[in-house]
Amino acid sequence: MVSQYLASRGISDKATLEAMRNVERHKMVPEAMREHAYEDRPLPIGNGQTISQPFMVAYMTQAIEPNPDMKVLEIGTGSGYQAAVLAEIVDKVYTIETVEDLAENARNKLNEMGYENIHFRIGDGYHGWEEHAPFDAIIVTAAPENIPPKLIEQLKTGGKMIIPVGPISSTQQLQLVEKRKDGKINTKNLFPVRFVPFTRRN
Questions:
Q1: Which segments of the protein form a coiled coil according to its record (predicted)?
Q2: Rounded distance, CA 40 to CA 55, Å?
Q3: From CA 190, how far away is CA 199, in angstroms rounded?
Q4: Distance (Å, whole) CA 71 – CA 33
Q5: How far apart are CA 179 and CA 162, in angstroms?
């Protein structure tokens, strides 16, 4: 998977490639889908959600320039796949999921797999995780129509956020957001994507 779908398509960060080799994706998909676990495509995981395709997970990980000293916030735990990839590289991962069943399943799987540096919350990712802010980087794995202001606030100066933004009914843009040292926010459109919608808790 790594050589065929990732390295050949421009994923070059060594830590990201190694993490993608180490994480056992087949443990994070329903048993009926396990034969497809290492194909480069999203797969259904229940509750109307999907596990992201490996290329997208690797691309978003590489985009934040991960290193061992970082504290990263993930919005949308889902299967736990992105959180596991991050946990292979960075010091601490804080991950938020709004769907309780998915959050508990991911927590159980990641604990069974031995990850001790992932912290879980069931809640509304729109508000981030203020108690542990600021974050060196933020990865959002569901698409809001606009970037949540709280996430920009909780991004450390010099930090990066990668997030799909756009309407539910059509293609979104994957955006890279950087908080510059002068306080200004740079936003760059990377390429069109289709993510599940960013859902809010009542």
A1: none
A2: 7
A3: 23
A4: 32
A5: 12
User: pLDDT at residue 166 above 90?
Assistant: yes
Answer yes or no: are the C-beta atoms of 109 and 175 closer than 8 Å: no
Catalytic residue numbers, as ranges: 52
Taking CB atoms within 8 Å and a gap of at least 24, the contacts of 111-115 are: 113/24, 113/27, 113/84, 115/83, 115/84, 115/87
pTM value is 0.95
Domains and CATH numbers, the chain: 2-193 (3.40.50.150)
Contact by Cβ (8 Å): 50, 102? no
Pairing relationship of beta strands 135-140 and 185-193 according to DSSP bridges:
unpaired
Tens of pLDDT along 32-82? 999 999 999 999 998 888 899 999 999 999 999 999 999 999 999 999 999
Beta carbons within 10 angstroms of residue 172's beta carbon? 21
